[in-house]
Structure formats: structure tokens, C-alpha cells
Specification:
The protein has one domain. With 137 residues, the protein is mostly helical. It is built from eight helices and no strands.
Length: 137
């Protein structure tokens, strides 16, 4: 529960900072240019790096049997994101491309409800009947 809660909070911080950056910048420079500035916005880069890096624990969870996810599939998914993140972090040119901002926005929009679903599923012991409908559908 702690891992899923921490990841949910981390992604929520990234999502909130991303949305804040877009709301502040879209009226001035347009959507595409606003996306290009997301990574360098306050509260995005560092939290994103820590939160996405924490996902490597999902490989461990799969390897030791905490979850039923196939190890190879989990490793490929997590490592592909790590490679994409490293490409952005270590490339000054990539940091300011609209694709980096779109990647951050899409990841955070997907991960917040995913980790929240996991939290509810663990706490209630039932991923279907006791999880809020908005997270389950």
C-alpha cells in the first residue's frame, strides 16, 4: 500500500505541476510551445525522475511474486520508460521539445488513477466491487 500510495502522490504532483505550467503558458505561447516548457517547470523534472525510477520496484515485485504480472513484460514496460526519461533528462534539446511535455502529461494522467486503483484494491481486498467506479471502469 505504501509503494502504491507514494507513487500515486508522486504522479499527482507531476500532473498538478504540468497542468499548472500549461495553464500559465498556453495563453502566452500556445499549446505546443507550452508543452515544450513542461519538463523545466518548477516541480516537474525532479519529482518525475524519482517517481518514474521508483517504478523499477515493479520489476522486483513481479520477480518475487507480489503481483501476477509477467516479469518480462513488466521489465520491458518499466525499462522503456526509464530509457525515454533518461533521453529527456540528459538531452538539453529533448527537454524543450513538445513531445517531452506530451509524454509527461500522458504518463501522469494514466498513472494517478492506476496507482489509486491499486491502493483501493489492496485496502478493500476487492478490485471489482469495492473500488470506486471511476477507477474501475
Amino acid at each position: 500500500v505504501l509503494y502504491n500510495s507514494a507513487c500515486c502522490v508522486g504522479w499527482a504532483v507531476v500532473l498538478a505541476a504540468t497542468v499548472k505550467s500549461l495553464v500559465e503558458n498556453v495563453p502566452n505561447v500556445g499549446f505546443v510551445e507550452a508543452l515544450a516548457s513542461v519538463y523545466e517547470s518548477e516541480g516537474v523534472g525532479t519529482v518525475l525522475a524519482y517517481t518514474q525510477s521508483a517504478a523499477m520496484m515493479e520489476i522486483v515485485h513481479s520477480a518475487v511474486g507480489f503481483v501476477r504480472s509477467p516479469l518480462l513484460v513488466t521489465a520491458m514496460q518499466v525499462m522503456s520508460r526509464i530509457v525515454a526519461l533518461v533521453g529527456v533528462v540528459y538531452s538539453p534539446e529533448a527537454k524543450v521539445q513538445w513531445g517531452a511535455g506530451l509524454m509527461i502529461l500522458s504518463w501522469s494522467m494514466v498513472e494517478v488513477p492506476r496507482y489509486l486503483f491499486y491502493v483501493f484494491a489492496i485496502l478493500t481486498g476487492d478490485a471489482t466491487k469495492k473500488t470506486p467506479y471511476a477507477l474501475f471502469w
